[in-house]
Structures are given as C-alpha cells and as structure tokens.
Design a protein that fits this description.
Layout (H helix, E strand, L loop, with lengths): L5 E3 H8 L3 H9 L6 E3 L2 E5 H9 L5 H16 L1
Antiparallel strand pairs: 1-3, 2-3
Helix pairs in contact: 1-2, 2-4
Amino acid sequence: MGEQLLVSIRDAARLMSVSTRTIQNLIAAKRLPARKLGRRTLISRSALEQLARRDTPSPSIEAIEVRERERRSAA
C-alpha cells in the first residue's frame, strides 16, 4: 500500500529524530495536530512535514506555558 498516512507517537519521534516526550509536548502545546483512534494517538505524515519546515520554539517550554494557562483558567 505504500507510505502510511498516520503514524504513532513512537514512529513520529523516530522520523523526526526526537524523543517521544518531545512529540507529546508538541501535541500538548497544540503545535502538532494528532487524533485518537481507539486508544492510539496518531499523527499525519503531512503534519510532521509541516512541522519540520517551520521554525518552532522549544516544545517543553511551550507545553509548560499551555499547562499554566489551563491551570489559571480552571481556577
């Protein structure tokens, strides 16, 4: 069938040469769109290609900022 349209977090990390935590942080920061299919989180190859083409700030810092905003809005 050729190239997969959607890949797992582990495969996305391998393709991007980063850790799975980095991929999770990018998803949490809404910098990388992902979708749930059953219990799996899947990412489109086109989203990974778009991410690779743009300049992005550190996903861990951005994830922390997102969590802080969510924490403040919940209070």
